[in-house]
Specification:
The structure holds 3 protein chains of 3 kinds. Chain A is an all-alpha fold. Chain A has helices at about 1-30, 40-60, 65-90, 100-120, 130-135, 145-170, 170-180, 185-190, 195-215, 225-240, 245-265, 270-285; strands at about 135-140, 145. The longest helix of chain C has 17 residues, at about 180-200. Classes of the chains: A mainly alpha, B mainly alpha, C alpha/beta. The interface of B and C includes residues 188, 191 and 308 of B.
Chain lengths: ~300, ~325, ~260
């Protein structure tokens, strides 16, 4: 019973992490059909940015609420700058080329950015511990839940809701949906696909950076954190369906709970549970759980 | 024979490399050994790439080959290089055969993702296995060669010659494979599977076959790499390793057999030079090199997707 | 005379949608059949069932006396029924000659994967046969051109030439002249039909252009709403007022070719 509760809560927290990490990737793939390997860099920069800026903030003894707000702001700033530079400066040159080529371009950009991080932040590990303390704890029966974890889950839910609402009810959301559905058609009816791409990429970058910033207090922010996140995000997006926010949410929940179960019950498979679920889903539904299979266009 | 003429440059290159080896510095030999081991993986990659399939998880077979060598060396008294490599090849082939039943049904990005997933499953399993040393991996002893146990500097030299031999053999076999019906149909698979099916060809079976060939080559590459590096670790199955192979395929620029070897060598050289000269920024260098290649060798990259390296009927003498 | 292709009580439904029903046709060898009907009438469903792309919900298909109902398209191709496509299914990256050689080599090599691995693609015999086939279809002049750069008419001819590389007995042509300019339609069909006659192939072709149908078909099958509503010689069938009402439109006293349909 207690284990079940532990699995449920751990799973929820891990799911929040997965969702935050994957949603930006899903958005970018859905709209631009690009498997963006640089997503790992957004995450890393977000984490480093938060570790440095928010760390300094808390060191001054300023109120905690502002600290949390700062995390979001830092993520937004990082995402804006990186996203803009990458999309306008680099990706633009490769639109229209084969999808695989674009993936490789993002891979090259990722490699470059990995070293940029090293140059800017050095090789030492950063820790951002203050938010954890500031969030406190919550006692549930015999369990002590970390306040920060609860905040994470809340953040993930907020982002999911926000993104879904934005897509469904705002003008930009509608434009995005049309472009996701059929890029050519969108251009043919006069939608400025180029602007949509830029905005989407920046939004995706911000979300990626948010994932990193939010996770910064829970991990050791050091070189290489982007590497693992990329393939994890890919897995979540592949399971949920490329381009589906709801899909990423459900997928994150499924994978999160599976992993929590593995950690508690069968630790040997913990690492590969994610990819096993991915393989399993792809076997039965190669397009992911929530995307409609694309009919072949002749 | 006209075909023989096409093989001359390659044959000469291999012979020259073998002959020059004793005169070359040890570090270059070691580098070349690893490079040509990896070239085999790239060779397998281009077989699939021609059919429009880009596996993001060739590291799966690479690691299988490498760990086969390492495990046999650790738990049995077998030390013979050829036996070890054969074991690696066979195991990789078996894995490719099994995985192929699944993978051959997919195309495009789903193929790539599923391939990635498979390799990450192996990675996860390897990392979690304490007996295999977890993330540290474990060492591989120097092998013997049909009873001969070289000493000192000869160890590296002999391994280099063995790698060259395997490389040459693989190059030759792939050369003839590309001229065969099964091999030449890779481009048609990319262009119109419908037409192939209606001509009576089972495209899935063809893809399965290509997967097995690519997997076996990657397994041999991994086995050779394990002997060359004298160490195996789970990183050999990690996605960045797969990414490296794809990287080289692009660098090779032409999707040709020769390109696989040249590209692998250049890549290892670049990596080594970058690491020595720019220890903090070698990845920037590599990333930039990749971007430059993509930008300025569009024909080269186009060739990956378009040209059937042939033996077009009129120019049968064209080198692959 | 036994039919080379015999379809009996054929039916195909997708859930509650009945795409084709009660199809009974027997085609004698070397007869040329024109299949007409509005879009969605069941023509393509029929073609797909005969070529194995779709499995019939009910009924049987017999090829030269042998039951081929439900066999996969690969098997049916090997048995001797081929088809061409409305959008020519050719290998765009290869030259015309390479395309033809590929088709010819596959026809010779048969099914065995092992055989396919050890047989070279450009064997002398393959080259010779390919050249002959390209000559027959009058596109040998394009042999060095990459398929992607070909004009539509040549693409269609290549598609058909490849389809018959395996010496099939029956060929189904899916709208062979669609996308071809009016001036070229007849010359295209002349080449095609002459080539197919030379190879002794029984032809069934789906067409919207009634002039083509009238000129080249020995017999017309008219589809409407999933069923065959007329089956007879072209002139009679096309002059039938019901057919004109439902499918072809009134026959104008046309002075130019190709203007005789709505």
């Amino acid at each position: 019973m207690l284990t079940a509760f532990a699995i449920a809560t751990d799973g929820l927290v891990y799911a929040a992490y997965l969702f935050l990490v994957a949603v930006g990737l899903s958005l970018i793939f859905g709209v631009m059909k690009i498997l963006n390997v640089t997503h790992g860099s957004f995450y890393a920069f977000g984490a480093y940015g938060a570790a440095v800026a928010v760390g300094m903030y808390f060191d001054r003894g300023l109120p905690a609420a502002g600290g949390f707000l700062l995390m979001v702001l830092v993520a937004a700033a990082v995402g804006l700058v990186l996203g803009l530079i990458l999309e306008r400066g680099l990706l633009r040159l490769f639109y229209g080329k084969d999808e695989i080529i674009v993936v490789l371009v993002t891979y090259a950009a990722f490699l470059i950015l990995e070293d940029v991080i090293r140059l800017v932040f050095g090789a030492t590990s950063y820790t951002l511990y203050q938010p954890l303390g500031a969030a406190g704890t919550l006692d549930v029966g015999t369990f002590v839940l970390s306040g920060y974890d609860i905040l994470l889950v809340a953040l993930a839910t907020l982002v999911a809701l926000g993104a879904s609402i934005a897509l469904k009810y705002t003008r930009w959301g509608h434009l995005l949906t049309v472009v996701i559905f059929d890029r050519e058609l969108a251009a043919a009816v006069g939608i400025n696909v180029s602007a949509v791409y830029t905005i989407t990429f920046i939004a995706g970058a911000m979300l990626g950076a948010l994932g990193g910033a939010a996770m910064a207090p829970k991990i050791a922010v050091t070189l290489g954190i982007g590497v693992e996140v990329i393939v994890l995000a890919f897995a979540v997006v592949a399971i949920g369906g490329m381009g589906s926010i709801g899909g990423a949410f459900v997928s994150a929940l499924i994978v999160g709970e599976c992993r929590a179960a593995a950690v508690h019950l069968a630790p040997q498979v913990e690492l590969f549970v994610v990819y096993a679920v991915m393989a399993l889903v792809l076997i039965f539904r190669p397009q992911g759980l929530f995307t409609r299979a694309q009919p072949r266009k002749i | 024979m006209i075909v023989a003429r096409a093989l001359i440059p390659g044959t000469l290159a291999f012979i020259a490399a073998a002959a020059l080896a004793p005169a070359l510095p040890a570090w270059l030999i070691s580098l070349a050994t690893v490079a040509f081991s990896n070239a085999l993986v790239v060779l397998g990659l281009i077989i699939l790439w021609r059919a429009g399939l880009v596996p993001f998880g060739q590291a799966l077979f690479y690691a299988v080959g490498a760990y086969a060598v390492a495990l046999i060396g650790r738990y049995t008294p077998v030390r013979d290089a050829f036996a070890l490599i054969a074991a690696g090849a066979l195991l990789a082939c078996l894995v490719a055969f099994l995985v192929g039943f699944l993978l051959a049904r997919y195309r495009e990005i789903f193929f790539s993702m599923l391939s990635l997933a498979m390799s990450m499953i192996l990675y996860g399993a390897l990392v979690k296995t304490e007996t295999l040393g977890s993330t540290d991996g474990f060492g591989v002893e120097p092998p013997t060669y049909l009873g001969y146990a070289p000493e000192g500097a000869m160890q590296h030299l002999v391994l280099f010659w063995v790698v060259l031999a395997f490389g040459a053999a693989a190059a030759l076999l792939v050369f003839f494979y590309f001229r065969s019906i099964a091999g030449a149909l890779a481009v048609p698979v990319r262009d119109s599977e419908i037409r192939l099916e209606f001509l009576g060809v089972s495209v899935n079976r063809l893809v399965h076959l290509n997967l097995m060939i690519a997997g076996t080559l990657a397994g041999i590459g991994g086995a050779l790499a394990a002997l060359a590096i004298e160490h195996v670790d789970p990183n050999m199955a990690y996605w960045t390793t797969s990414g490296g192979f794809v990287f080289v395929t692009i660098l090779a620029g032409a999707g040709t057999i020769a390109g696989s070897f040249i590209g692998s060598f250049v890549f290892e050289l670049l990596k080594s030079v970058a690491y020595d000269l720019l220890p903090g920024t070698w990845q920037i260098f590599l990333g930039a090199a990749l971007l430059v290649t993509i930008l300025f060798l569009p024909e080269g990259l186009g060739s990956l997707f378009v040209r059937l390296r042939r033996a077009s009927p009129q120019s049968k003498g064209a080198a692959p | 005379m036994s039919a080379i292709l015999a379809v009996h009580d054929l039916q195909k439904s997708f859930g509650s949608v009945i795409a084709a029903h009660d199809i009974n046709v027997a085609v004698p060898a070397l007869q040329t059949v024109g299949i007409i009907g509005a879009n969605g009438a069941g023509k393509t469903t029929f073609v797909n069932m005969v070529t194995g792309h779709l499995r019939p919900s009910a009924g049987t298909i017999a090829f030269d006396g042998r039951d081929i109902t439900g066999l996969p398209s690969r098997a049916i191709s090997r048995l001797g029924i081929a088809r061409s496509f409305q959008m020519p299914q050719i290998f765009s990256s290869l030259t015309v000659q390479e395309n033809m050689c590929a088709a010819t080599a596959i026809a010779h090599a048969g099914d065995g994967l092992l055989q396919q691995v050890v047989t070279p693609l450009y064997a002398r015999r393959t080259l010779a046969e390919s050249e002959a086939a390209l000559e027959l279809f009058r596109i040998a002049g394009y042999c060095r051109n990459t398929a992607a750069t070909l004009p539509q008419g040549v693409r269609k001819l290549l598609d058909i030439a490849m389809a018959v590389a395996g010496a099939p007995r029956v060929l189904l042509l899916d709208e062979p002249t669609s996308g071809i300019s009016i001036e070229e339609k007849f010359s295209l069909m002349d080449v095609v039909m002459a080539a197919l006659k030379d190879r002794c192939i029984t032809v069934l072709f789906v067409e919207h252009d009634m002039d083509i149908v009238e000129r080249y078909a020995d017999r017309v099958l008219a589809f409407y709403d999933g069923a065959v509503i007329a089956d007879g010689p072209p002139r009679e069938t096309l002059e039938n007022t019901r057919i004109q009402e439902l499918i072809s439109g009134p026959k104008l006293k046309a002075t130019t070719a190709g203007a005789g349909h709505a």
